[in-house]
Each structure stands twice: as structure tokens, then as C-alpha cells.
Amino acid sequence: MSWVYVNPFTGYAYFNNLKINESQSDSLFLSVTGLNLHISMLRLFSKNYEITDLTLDDPFGTVIQHKRNFNFDDLIKRFDPENSDSTEAPIHFSILHIKINNGEFIYKDNEIPIDYTIRNVNCESSGIKWNTDTIAAKLLFRAGKARSEVKTSFTINYKTLAYHFALVLHKFDLEIIDQYLKGLVNYGAFHANVDADIKASGNFNNEEDVTAKGIVEVNDFHFGKNKSDDYASFDKLKVEIKELSPLNHDYSFDSIALIHPRFKYDRYDSLDNWETMFGKNGSNLAVASADQEKFNLVIEIARYAKVLVRYFFRSAYKINSVRISDGDLEFNDFSIGEKFSLSASPLFIQADSIDKNRPRIQLVAQSGLKPYGKGTIGLSINPNDSADFDMHCRLQNIPITLFNPYVVTYTSFPLNKGTLEFNGNWHVQEGIIQSTNHLLIIDPRLSRRIKNKGAKWLPVPLIMAFIRERGNVIDYEIPITGDLKNPKFHFNNMILDLLKNIVVKPVTIPYGIHVTNTENEIEQSQSITWDWNSIQLSSGQKEFIIRMSGYLKQHPKEILSISSVFYEEKEKEFILFFEAKKKYFLLSHPASRFTIRDSLEVGKMSVKDPAFVRYIDKNSRAEKLFTIQQKCSQFVNPSIVNSKLEQLVTNRKRIFASYFKDESTFSQLRILPIEYAVPYNGFSYYRIDYKGGIPEPLLSAYQTLSQLNEGLVRKKYLKDRIQNLIRK
Questions:
Q1: What's the CA gap between 377 and 425, in Å, rounded?
Q2: pLDDT value of position 342
Q3: What's the predicted TM-score (pTM) here?
């Protein structure tokens, strides 16, 4: 210390710049700019040490943890009454008033590591008396780098370990969680902050002995690969607690609201995005949980949360309102030849009066589906028996071309048309299922086979001929019975329809061909569809463009408006794959020129070809590349992909326009700026709008199709087809 002042008559002492080192070390344990205290001198003669007040100014201390041990354990051991000589007369020690002004304390755990600071610590306590068992205090400080504000008052019985506290948090930054997560994950970033106003009481000896009420808000929650790639996030989670008491089996909440939650699940060739972080099947968590010597705050919070919810469904639970608003559940599959992506967004879930004493709980979930579609789920469940519920599920307006990544991988035949709808009704009582499920696919149609060495082959055109009904639909009822542990799917309806199609279809082939030709006439008159990363037109498309050019020549006042709808993400993916395979091919064949034959060979090569994947894995310079798309993006210069994309757009426009320039009808075209969007049919296309009269062949085709739709075979699905036209 710098200096000390002691008055033995009044019992006053002041220590200036006091510094205390670690035991048997020169490392600083605690320092204060000023420490002053008053000792009751008269009580010393009766071995009653009483400090009437103790004040610490600007204290600075360091708490170091190693596994379950702390750097102040030696002090606790030294002053433990059990270590004193029991033959001596007892010494009574009391501190009547304790005050800390503007303190700063650092917590460290070098093993994880953790480095966390609380500042501006101001504390006032009524002190500790030798003949009482409780200590009470008020505490105010700012925590972490963000200087979040914490205000609390508490009372603890240090013999029974009963406690009571009131806690107020304002934008409390949970950065310390991120530090503990580093010991559980292979990579990742986390941040969030908390607002809270909680009152609670309980006992430290019994984890379940806690009774709490108040409000907790977790804000700006982000957890994921890095700060710009979240795997889970939300804007706000607000919980209003009326009474929470696991010991008394009382869980009463006024409301639970979750605003803009987002959850992303990615499948890779071997693991998924969560396993790459936490280890396969959560192995990192299992190892950390098994190590009883090593302290991890995240594991301890998870354990305590498990205690709190252990008896939830057995208790008298009640939640007046549950709301999830503007959610986003995203699924991406990179394990197949091309990326599959689907998200439920925006997702809304609502449930009112979740009460164990009510006969049923009603829950409604509604969501849009991206890129197209929507879904709804209605659930009515017995709160006392989860095997007793009624559920209705409906999916609408989903283009089956969305599933092309799977269809191409397992059949080689992409789909270029069709809309899926599904209705399911489940009645489950005592675990026994009675369920009806209706699957309807309107106008499914295949495109040309893609010859790719990585894709399996199935005779899908033949299969489609049998499973598709005369109205050009796939329409099946699939009942489910049995119980929840062993459900039984009944395919009788599908088998009967299949047998009927085998008998009926050959007779109705002329009708089917007539319908298909009429639909093709209309579709080709409205749009020109392009295969991915291709400028080639089919013979049918060429024939139509020639006829359209001839029509304009005969009608010089007619104008055609051409809009280009460009599926940029998918086109770039196929360009990227081709350029990566091309680069690998040229490196593997340094003496050869890249010929048309080589181009065809590269086009047929699977992007999951083992030799190709091994090569780009070996030459990847960046870490944490889990998808073939990421690896190819690192293998191929992005400028090459962008350049090829521009060339693709230019060449398509040039080829399309050439048919009109030859006939001198190019001036009758109005080519609009490119529209970047996800097309309903899954392919980039040119949309054709007629600014004058509709050509007679197209009008005739419309009239023919209208008559066919009004016929007995197709009339049942007329409403669905009209909805499809409206969506497009």
C-alpha cells in the first residue's frame, strides 16, 4: 500500500492504494484506491470483532477458475470454522455495513478460455453478523464490452442456502455465452441481449425449489456459421411469467411471443450444418457433458433448463397466449447433384388458452412456401394425452418442378410442368390412427432426359403413363390406420387406379395425344422455355418461332412483346458446375484442345464424380467449405461465371431474334428488360404477349382446350387448372 492511517481510539483505519497478490505469487488478486473501516474497539476485549462499516473505493479484482476450483478457495478454506481449534473460545466476527464504489472485476477461465469484465460495480449490503444467518445486498453494475446494465437486490441465508432476489437487466449482452460456446463447437458465432424484470425465491440445495415471476425478453438472437450466416435467429422472444414453480408443479404464463424466428437446416454429402458445428450426432456436447470436472456455462444452463421443463406436462401448466410471427424455416439439400431449397415463410403459429384443465388445445399454423405455395395446419390436442389429437394439413399451389433436383438425380427425367396439392385429415385417439390423405398433381409433364453419369435412370415416361389418369392428373387417396408406433399405409386406391389405367389408357391414347398437342400449341404460343445453361431450341420451338415470324409478316401492324424471365440462381449454378468440370478436364488432359466432343463429355460428368471431388477438395484454399457449390465457387474465378452468364443471355436473345431478322419482322418485336425471378415451371423462359389480336391458331387451340376442360374427364379439375393459370 502507499500509506495507512489508523486511529486506535476511534477504531478508524484507512488504507491507500492497497494491493493484495495471489497466494505465493506476485500476480494481483485485488487492489483498491482506498479502503476505510470502523472497528468497535470495546467489543475486542470480549473477542467480538465488529466492523461497523467497510467501504472499498475503486476496487479491481480478478477471479480465475480452473475446472471447478477458484483462486479464492484458499481464503474460504483458511477462514472455514471447521478448520479452527475447537478447544479455544469462539471468536465472533461481524461486518455491519459494506459498500463498494465503482468497482471492476475480471472473470477468467484459461482452459476454455473466458475473459469477462464487469465495471462500475456499486454495491451496498447490511453486512454479516455472527449471530444471524442471512446477508442482504443491493448491486448495480455494467457488464461486458457493451456495458450492459444489471440491477439486483438479494437476500441469502448462507446456512440453509435459501435465497430471494429481484433482478432487472437492460440490454444485457450475452457475449459470455459466445465464449463458452467456443469450447463446444468447431466454429460459429453467437450474440444476443436480454431485458428482464424478475423476482424469484428458492434454495440452492434443490434445483427444483425455485418460484419466479416477471418478464424476460431475449433480443437480436443470432447463432450460426459466422456473423453473416445464421443457422438460428430471432428478433425477440418475450416470456411473461405469472408463476413458475417446478417444485409445486405450477407453470403459469401470461404469454409467449416469438418474433421473426429463422431456422436453417442444410444437408451436405456426409453431415449437416449443425453436425459440422457440434460434431456428428452432437459428439462435442456429449464429451463436454461427460466431463464433470470442467465447468461450461452453456452446459449448466441446458441442464437447469431441463430441470425446469422436466415436469411441465405433468404439472398444472397454463399459457394464455402463444404467438410465433413472421417465421422462416429454411431447408437446403446439397447432397444431390444440384441444390434443392424450400422454406416456410412467412410462418405464423397461434395458440390461445393452452391450459391443462381445458379439454382441448387449439393450434393453427399458416405459412407461405418459397419459391411457391402455401401450407396450413390445424391441430386440436388433448393436453393430458399427446396421443389424442385431431389434425388437418393442407398444402397448395406447389410446383412439382421444385423437386427436379431429386427427380433428375433418381430418374434422369426433369419435370417442366405440374402443380401439387395435398389434404390430410388425422383423427388419433389413444394412439389409434384414422387418417385420410388426398394427393393431387395437376398436369404433370416430363421434359427431355438429362444424360448425366451421376444420375440414376428409371423409365419415367412409361411409369407416368400408368400412374397418370386420363384427365392428365395424378389423383390418389392414401388412408393410414394402425397406431402411432406402427402406422399402416393403404395403397389399395393407387393399385386399383393403376390397374384401371392399364385397361383404359390404351383405348384413350388418341384422346390423350389430342389434349397434349392442344396444350403444347397454347404453351408454345405463350412462352419459349430454355434448358439450364443452354441456347438450344427444340424442333417444336423452332417450328413455332418460324410460324410466329410468318404471322407477323402477314400482319405488319401486329406487335409482339417479349419478356425474359431469367432464373439467375439456377443458371449460375449450372454454369459454375460446367466451368469447374471443364477446368478439371483441361488440367487432366493438358495436351488436348477443348472440342465439342469434350464439351459433351464434360456435360455428362457428374458434379459428384469421386475423382473430381477429390481434386477440388485437395486444391481448396479456404476452410469450412461444405458444399460442392462452395468448393466450385472457390475453384472457378467468379468473373468467369458472370461472363458466361452474360454470354448466355446475349446468345439466347441473338438466336431468338435471328428468326425474325431473316423475315424482316424484327421491328415488330418489343423486347423488354430481363426480369430476374424464380419461374413457376423451374426454367428460364421468354414470355410472349400479343399486343394486337390473338392469332387464329392460338384462339382455336384455346377454344379446343376449353371444350376439353368442360368434358366429363377433365371437368372435375377445371377449378384447379384455372387457379394454375391465375398463378402463372
A1: 10
A2: 95
A3: 0.85
